[in-house]
Amino acid sequence: MTAPLTPHDQPPHFPPYPGAGGEFGKPDARGTAVRAEVARGALVALLVAVCGVLLGLLWLWLSPRIPMVSDGKAVYLKDTEGEEAIGGDGTFVLIAAGLGLLSAAAVFWRYRAGGVGIVLGLAAGGALASVIGWRLGVALGPTTDIVAHAKAVGPKVVFDGPLELRAKSALVAWPAAAMLGHIGLTSAFGPREPEVPPPAAAG
After folding, report:
1. pLDDT digits (tens, 9 = 90+) for 46-94
2. Which regions of the chain does DSSP assign to beta strands (E)?
3. What is the distance between the alpha carbons of residues 77 and 56, in angstroms, rounded to a whole number?
4. Residue 121 near residue 43 (C-beta atoms within 8 A)
5. Rounded to two decimals, what is the model's pTM?
6. Are 88 and 164 in contact (CB under 8 A)?
């Protein structure tokens, strides 16, 4: 029969490993918070990116058309001094910036506390939405095969040129406007840290 162990002979008790939450296999509170933050950021990015479909449709509808004409040998701009060619870029920037501000307001209303994941999701979603809107507008607009289009309509007949985004820097309009809008809303209406009263003066 084995004699009972005295307190001096019992094995030492080690504290739980940092980050193990006190029990093996259970995540700690910090890891849970990080995963929740990443999930919220991914959800925001996905929802904002889907709104790129609206950008593409609005750009296709509001962008000025580029009139072109063929003489049977080559294709020319009908109005060489017209501003329709650069009007498409300006229209894209204005629509993207407006939608970026709206998405920032919607995200701030849903997640007023903010967080790094929310901000990164808003920026990534805005960039994806810009690319989706650009490619969708080009795909749904007039054909990009200008020569085939000119042959189909015939010489001396005016037709619409393809919808193009000449300045690719316009793709940053949505994420830039969304970030600025979210920062402004957070600064003006975000939660405030409680003020700590100053320590009382000695004596």
Report:
1. 999 999 999 999 999 999 888 888 877 777 677 665 566 678 899 999 9
2. 67-70, 75-77, 159-160
3. 24
4. yes
5. 0.75
6. yes
